[in-house]
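[stage:ingest] chain + small molecule (nicotinamide-adenine-dinucleotide)
[stage:ingest] validated
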Amino acid sequence: MSDIINTSSRASGQSVIGRDKDRVLSDDKPFEDMMARFDHAAELLGLDAGLYKVLRAPEKQIIVSIPINRDKGDVEVFTGYRVLYNTSRGPAKGGIRFDMRVTLDEVKALAAWMTWKCAVVNIPFGGAKGGVVCDPTALSLTELERITRRYTAALIDVIGPESDIPAPDVNTNERVMAWIMDTYSMHMRRSVTAVVTGKPIEMGGSLGRREATGRGCMIATREALQHLGMPVKGTRVAVQGFGNVGSVGADLMSKEGMTVIAISDNSAAIYNKKGVDITAALAWTREHRYLKGFPGGEPMGKNDLLTLDVDVLLPAAVENVINRNNAKDIKAKIICEGANGPTTAHADPILDEKGVFVIPDILANAGGVTVSYFEWVQNRGAYYWDEATVNERLARIIRNSFQDVLTLSTRHSVNMRTAAYMLAVDRVAAVHRLRGMYA
Ligand code: NAD
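[stage:predict] done
[stage:export] tokens:
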């Protein structure tokens, strides 16, 4: 099912031409969804028609075939993508995901997302994303390694510390980054640590990278509470997803004095009115992998967690969980978007109407790419920072970016998402204007 968003009802934007007036939005068209938000920001900024066209077009879209020998001897050919959306501000930056649901449309949307995210936090990167259509659970470790190395080899002229720097994403991790770094380094005949971020610490990864996204969520939430005049101590939080972002976010929020009353993962949701003991939940998942069976609270419906009566909701699992069906039932005063795209474009106006303060993903979860940037800087300088330095610099960037977005939001009477897009698009557009058009 799809809705029609009639852009003609928005603020006038005579300077922007050539756009669909009646764009059809559908939850399975991530690029359209993303671009509806870009369009809105472009219109409010009065972006000129030429730049509008330039910023709507991905710079480079690459499709590669990845043939490998399976362990049993037969040959299988996988498909991989890499999209460099915009590199005007610096080398492209963005993760690689291994998943059966990877499509070019999704990779394009995620690459655009990375462009805006890097611009919101003002780090000198453009945006990219990559993916391989595969089911990692059906592959052995050696098959995964062969896919990774062949994918890297296919992109050898694209990736590089000065051009395009991959990172982990869904179903890829430090080990996959180590294989990419090794393959690239073998081709270059020297060790090139800065070609990927999210590497193991032993080979040039940054201290604090693993916790960076959850830490950024906690800092952004603290800023939002302060802005709304709400206390940090005792603030009731519900967290969806107990992986890298959700578990660290929950842990740091509870260490700040907030009360995390519900957590969930793919297996279960747990509710405890007095506050879930996050240290115990972390210990449980380390041992049992999933939350299912965790004795520190009562089980509850996974979807019911989203509509709990809390102060802060941290969706940190998958996309589209807050949508036209449940947005009206959200009771949280603040949504901190730890996940990428947890809220659909259809849900935005419903949340606005209810007065929910949404910290948009391109700001809320930018802690990860910020410390990836620190990792790249440390690799290039061959000088490594202690964790306190990493955390202190991260906190400063998230706090400043939050305030930049808040200022725009107040000045233009728009929500935080639109303000974040306006800030990002304006920064990317400014560089295009300065650089001019190469022809
Ligand atoms: P992860 O794989 O470590 O964790 C995901 C968690 O979500 C798991 O606990 C999983 O069980 C849970 N989950 C999946 N479906 C669920 C459902 N329907 N209900 C409840 N829980 C569910 O992934 P992650 O790295 O924590 O990433 C989570 C989100 O944050 C993704 O959208 C990702 O793109 C985004 N993100 C991650 C980073 C990062 O640095 N890891 C940075 C920016 C954005």
